[in-house]
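Recap from last week: sequence in, structure out.
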Amino acid sequence: MATLHDILRFRVDEDGGKERIQKALSKTKWLERYADNPEDITLEVLESLYKAVVKKYNGGIGYIQNAGDGSMVCMIKRYDDHKWITSIYFVTFWEMMAKLILALYGHYIKGIIFQE
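Predicted C-alpha cells:
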C-alpha cells in the first residue's frame, strides 16, 4: 500500500498515476463522497475545496516554478508563520491541485511532517 509520500511522487503522465491519485483523494474525509467515482474529482472540485481549506487552515501555495524537466514544482507553506510544509512536482494543474489537497490533508488532518 502506497504512503502519502509515495502518492505525492506519482505522476499523471505515467501509467496509472492519475487513477492512484484520484483513489487517494477519494479516501480523504474531504472527498469521501467520490469513493464510488473518483474520476469525478475535477479541477473545479479541487479548486473549490482548496479555497475552503486555505480559509480554515491558513496554509497553501507559496510559489510555483518551472522544474526544468517538463514539470513544475509548487512549494506549500503555512501562511501564519511562513514555514515550509512540502514541495510537490506536477505536469498538469489538476495534478498540482490534487497533490496540494493531499499534502494539506496530510499536514493538517493527519499531522504528517514532511521531510525531503
